[in-house]
Amino acid sequence: MSSGPVTVGVEALDVYGGSAWISADDLAEGRGLDRARVKNLMLSGRSVALPFEDPVTHAVNAAKGLLDDLDPAVRDRIEVVLVATESGVDYSKSIASYVHRHLELPERCRLLEVKQACYAATAALQLATGYLASGASPGARVLLIATDVGLADERAEYAELATGSGAVALLLSERPDVLALDLGAFGLHSFETMDTARPGPDTEFADADLSLVAYLECTVRSFADYSRRVADVRLDETFDHLVFHTPFAGMVRAAHRRAMREFTGLDPAATAADFTRRVEPGLRYPAQVGNLFSGSLYLALAGLVDELPATARESRVGLFSYGSGCSSEFLSGTLGEAARDTVAARKIGPRLAARRRLGFAEYRELLPYGQACLLPRRHLTLDPHPEWRPAAGGRGPLLALRGIDDYHRRYDWI
Hints:
The structure is a single chain. The protein is an alpha+beta fold. The protein is built from 15 helices and 17 strands. The chain folds into 2 domains: 238 residues, Peroxisomal Thiolase, Chain A, domain 1 (3-Layer(aba) Sandwich); 161 residues, Thiolase/Chalcone synthase (Peroxisomal Thiolase, Chain A, domain 1), CATH 3.40.47.10. It has a 9-stranded mixed sheet with strand order 5-4-6-7-1-8-13-12-11, sandwiched between helices. The longest helix is centred in the middle third of the chain and has 22 residues. It is globular, with a radius of gyration of 20 Å. The termini are far apart.
């Protein structure tokens, strides 16, 4: 067992924002939605799952490049694989087992799938942090992946524009080059509500008004609990940056405004300036990808880090995580001096820009495939059409779902 203080957090992260996307304007026009309301969502587009993509392929494609760049000795120290998802493909078998296999990770590994709507990745992060900080296995790494497939269609109305597909991979360790977590500094707020749910593998339910109320309530109550646990905290002064779970940027703006009104004396103009300075840099990638569910907070974190200036030094960040149903947490940490270069090496922005843009007719044709990818099937054969292969965005081979035999999913690299 180790003695003395330990530093734990995010050593590296990467994002898979899908191979294809549709612009918010094209989708809104196709659905006949009010452009003024669409503008308030602050979205440029959303990712779209192709027929050979599912939560397993998203997870593997998010993590592969990051792991390929690791020293083999470091890769061999991955002892835990945690997958946070509300898009499970089996009621018993964990997605983590598929991920472990196709990433060719060490056999000396704990595998676990975690579910609590969009909060699941943060719950898994805290579980992993406790394991690493305990000193039970010095030098160990934990691979945490948040992966999901959006099921929204025209029945979701405006929420359809904000529902993305993809994954975020985090490598956690005692060398947190990206984000060193403040151990023991957190605030919690949870209660039961039916704001969103997935009562079946191809059915998604959302009460937009109830979800907004719950999100705003959890924002202020989790920070209030953080303030009770951590001395001398001021929302307007303690943190250089604020990062939120981002279903869409307009929701984040409302939460920031509510929290600033409750915990600070800033007037509306100063609050708006604060949003632009401390929050808006983290909204760039969510605006292009849409809501990545439990990966959404960490997609926003990636966007923030990629927006840091070249001269950036260590800075404090506050993070708000929310999951429907509901559970929430406010936590914090320090972005290290190596954070910007570490995340920039993943080339997340250029890869998002290289995705294939879909027209509305193509999108509508593809939508049923994404909605059906979670259905239990005994047999299925898929042939990833060559026309989709350039959509990889120049990142090399992608894992693709090729078929299902006796409920066992088969994957291959394309």
